[in-house]
């Protein structure tokens, strides 16, 4: 019986330069050890897929002190570019996303056992510039991917290949789907159980995730009410289908809901907490569902949450057969790939608006470079953004992708 020959192209580092060797193994006689497809020892440098030098060092944001004050907690550091493991991708970040929970993470609220220093940032999008051998089975150098994972606030990030999503191009609009879009899509599908004609109330409706909650509720043929803080935001909400924007700077939310929606709210998509949570609970309809996806009003406090009036809550829920449901995206990762696939399809067809705020209207201008992450976090907590706040990460090597 003849023995099949298997040919593999293996990248080897020789004197700091990459050369390609054909390694031919007799599959029944030799078991080749697994190794990275690129040996990045950084003795000098390695070459990316276009033959441009990738530096041996990079910059990233590191949490060095636990605090909800992002500027106090985080520092910008220069470190070696990391090496991807067997199942990993090394991604050159083009854009990174800003989230309200960035300060929860810097305060150590998600995992109290983790102590500084640790990397900051939850999501990014960019090109694959190196990868491990196992990862090369499904990914290629030069591919554009988005990802959700720790350490995104960096010029380069190593991410397990299984945590990445291939996207058509390195546009920031695709990044908006990773956390903000997926949170709205999955929570409303699994917990909202939307039905045609239901009244859906979205708080912070013009923000990163609120914009998607509005659109998905409209796709379900619901009547959507959305809160916001300016007439400009109200105009944006109307443009994406919101039936009743409420600018709480000029209107009393409580009075609007009492007069215009006397039968109550069927579904609430709530991210503010505190007084807004109390208001929403009191305006729930019979069999209403209140989905808690966050409580940003308390994140900057020492405890991370503002108190709510829970004294008579059991009675209120019982009287209306209503429910309050918490949603934390990492608990629903089994739904993630299907959600991303559907949202990307909607984007490609022009059926989904992915509004991005790059800070171009701020006094200091566009969020550009890791230094501007601090300013972008401040901007989020000023409540000025329309859509998802995104920071562009510049690189000396220009991309044609």
Short description:
The protein is an alpha/beta fold and 401 residues long. The chain has helices at residues 70-73, 102-106, 172-175, 177-192, 210-219, 231-239, 253-260, 275-282, 313-320, 336-348, 372-382; strands at 5-14, 17-26, 46-47, 53-54, 57-63, 74-80, 88-97, 118-119, 123-131, 144-148, 156-160, 164-166, 199-202, 223-228, 244-247, 265-270, 284-292, 323-326, 356-357, 388-392.
Question: How is this structure best described in words?
Answer:
By secondary structure, the chain is of the alpha/beta class. It has helices spanning about 70-75, 100-105, 170-175, 175-190, 210-220, 230-240, 255-260, 275-280, 315-320, 335-350, 370-380, and strands at about 5-15, 15-25, 45, 55, 55-65, 75-80, 90-95, 120, 125-130, 145-150, 155-160, 165, 200, 225-230, 245, 265-270, 285-290, 325, 355, 390. The strands form 5 sheets. Strands 7, 9, 10, 11, 12, 19 and 20 form a 7-stranded mixed β-sheet that branches. It has a 6-stranded parallel β-sheet with strand order 15-14-13-16-17-18, sandwiched between helices. Strand 13 (about 200), helix 5 and strand 14 form a beta-alpha-beta unit. The two termini are about 45 Å apart. The model is unreliable at about 1-50 and about 395-400 (pLDDT under 50).
